[in-house]
Every structure is written in structure tokens, then in C-alpha cells.
Amino acid sequence: MSGIFRVFYNGFAAMAIGPFFFAPMVLAVMAGVITLLAGCAVLTRRVSPQFDRWPWLVMLLVLASARLGFVIRHWDSFLTEPWRIFYFWQGGFDIGWAIAAAVVSLVLLQGLRRERLAGRCLAWWPR
């Protein structure tokens, strides 16, 4: 393979951007994070300042749960060296857990917003 993609001796494909090599899944995650943060920056300026905080919370929950899913799937490997659980830079994320965490966190954050709105409405309700 020529061009920006390289295939290494073990069959691992990576994309070269300058001196850095990225796996296709890592590039997809980076593109998703950049899109999320850019979209929320636009929404913060145009709609409401509430969009400033929640993308960071969702992103942290998604990354932590994706790593947790990978660790659970490969528990026998991490059992011998448990400190490797925190080696995020070595890769190892489960996309299924990431998607599930994104959906759950967005549903929970939407529910919290409705609760606050309901609390404000009840606070102003004439007695």
C-alpha cells in the first residue's frame, strides 16, 4: 500500500500524518471528538451557555467506559499486570461500550435538564 496508509509487518494498518501514525479507529474517535466540541462551541455561542459543560462530561464518560469495556473483555491479560488498565496511550477501547455510554449519558443529562426545568416551574407556581 502506498500513499498515506502504511501496513506494518504484523498486518496493522495505520495512517501517516506527518511523523505520526494513527490506527483508523483512533482517527475516527479523534474526528468524533473534534466534531462534538466544535458543534457544542457553536451551540454555546448561538443557543445557550449550557452547551459549554456537557460535551466534556459526555466525552469523559464515553472514553472511560470504552476503556472499561476493553479491560473487561481482556481481563486475563490485565490480571497479571493490573496497572496497565490506566495505560490509555497504548490504545484498547471497545466501541460498543462507547456507544452505549454515549446514549446513556445523553439520556441521563436530558433527564437532569428536565428535572431542573420542572423544579424551576414548580418554584414559580402560585400557591
From TrEMBL:
GO terms for cellular component: plasma membrane. The keyword Methyltransferase does not apply. It comes from the Bacteria. Keywords: Membrane, Transmembrane, Transmembrane helix. The chain crosses the membrane at residues 20-44, 56-75, 87-109. GO terms for molecular function: phosphatidylglycerol-prolipoprotein diacylglyceryl transferase activity. GO terms for biological process: lipoprotein biosynthetic process. This is Redoxin domain-containing protein. It comes from Advenella kashmirensis (strain DSM 17095 / LMG 22695 / WT001) (Tetrathiobacter kashmirensis).
